[in-house]
Structures are given as structure tokens and as C-alpha cells.
Amino acid sequence: TNVKYNIPASDEVPAFKVAVSVHRREATDEEEMAACYPLQLKIEARWLKENVSNMAIVDVKLVSGFSVNEKALQQKLKQSENVIEFLASKEGENEAILKRYEIEGQNVILYFDEIKTMSFSLDIIQSTLVKKTKPGVVKVYDYYDPESQAKVTYKIAEKDCYGERIENECPKCLSVDDFEDLFDKNINCTSYLTRVKSIGGLMKVKKAYIKANYSQEYATIPYAIPEFCLCDEINNGVTSLVFGQSDYFRKNGEEISLVFDSGTTITKWNGEEMRNMFRKKMVQEIYQKCWLFFEG
Fold first, then answer.
1. Mean per-residue pLDDT pooled into runs of 10, the chain (296 residues)
2. I need a surface site. Which of 54, 88, 217, 268 has the fewest CB within 10 A?
3. Which SS3 state, helix, strand or coil, does residue 117 take?
């Protein structure tokens, strides 16, 4: 991933031009495995006024759930010649030298002697899974003249974090307006089709339709979904229609559970209008055509 997010947080004319990009990187030996790939923030800044800034501060507010790899940051502080790069390599431009850093909660505060142009990378890891995070913020300002500043926000997108795992492991979770079109394109005689309701971390099987395990109708059973998958359609108290071409009822010994993966589609059951359309489609297009596929 190599996408820049450069969204000014203020209408004032900035003293710096700042850009932040998010990149995937290799994990170090010391880093514990997390659902999210190890990431790197690349921060680029340019002083827009004459000469160079005074001592400058780069204040990085991390996205919730992420922390900095402090060991890597310490190495960069000790070996700045391997870390600090120019934003542009024009003759006579001054190199920004990292003097020290502080970590205060979600903020990583970097101190530079001055900035004309600067490029600095910060290794971060996901320490806690937080869904629907707010953007992070990078603020660059002159230490002796804090009004000389600039801010940008950045996002860590799901694809930055999980890449192809979203497509390969997550169910398709949909809220649709045209349910008839969804039905026509996705539900047929070979589908597995169930209506469920999420209750206190379990799933109540309210109705089992095509090829489903009828013995589980009205049962309340466990379910599994990869923890990084965003799916409001299975929030507590929500009733949903679940369908797919593979059986999502899984048996482990005597226990049966629902497993929602990339072969499963989940759409919110949105009331009487959907109920009436569903009954019509089931009677006219499924029950009459697919009775040989039904169990029970």
C-alpha cells in the first residue's frame, strides 16, 4: 500500500507543507504477531518560509489501537544518518536531525534541531484491535513560534492493515435497498439460506430455509467471524439473512456453530417490506423449483 493522505486540518496558511503516507513493512523479530500487518508511517515536511525553521516539533497522534515500535525509534535516534532523508535532494538544503523523542499516550513527539526539508519513518504496530477508528493527526510546528505550524490527518484503511485477508476471510456484509435484485442474483436451489438474530454473542436461528441444518431451527448457537471483519449486520439484537454456496453450519463433536467466512453473505433483515418480498420469491421461485433439494 502506498497512498498519501494530505488533508489540512485548518484553513490558515501553513508554515510547513506536510504529507503522511502509510506503508506495509516486514515484522521485526521482537514484534508479536497481530491481525494487522506491521506498518510504517512516512512523514514528510517542508518549511515554506525563508531560510529554515527554529527547533521544530513533529507531534504524531497515532490511530487508536496502534503503538510505536520504540526499539526501532531508539535505533533511529542513535543512527540518524541511516534514517533521516531529504524530502528533496537539492544542493545546500539543510538536513533535519532528530534530537530526541517523547511518548505521551497515543502521541509520539519528535524534536528536530530545525527543518528545511525532512523525511522520517515511524514503525508502528497494532497493539489492540479497535474497529471504526478515527484518523490520526500529524502536527509540525516551530518550537519558538508555535503559530508557525501545519496539521494533516491520516487514516489507516482496512486494506493497509489486513490486505487480501479481507477478501479471503471476511463475509460480505451488506445493507441493501433492492432486496429483490439481491435475491435474484444470489439465491438459488443450491444456496444455504438462514434467518438469524444476534443475541448476547450467540446466534438464534429463527428460520432455516434452503439446504440448512433444520435440526438447528430456533436453537441459539455460537458463531465465529474473523475479529478484524467489520459487519454491523451481526451486531447484538440485529436480525439478518445469511446465505452462501457452502454450508456455514459446522459441527465439532456434539457442538454446532455458525462460521461466517468469505463464502458467506449477510444482509440485514429490514422488516415487513423485505418479509413480504422474501415470501413471494421463496414460494414462486424457490419452493416450486427446488423441492428436491430440501431436507425434512
1. 50 83 89 85 93 92 95 85 46 69 96 91 91 92 92 92 90 86 86 91 88 71 91 90 90 88 92 81 77 53
2. 88
3. strand
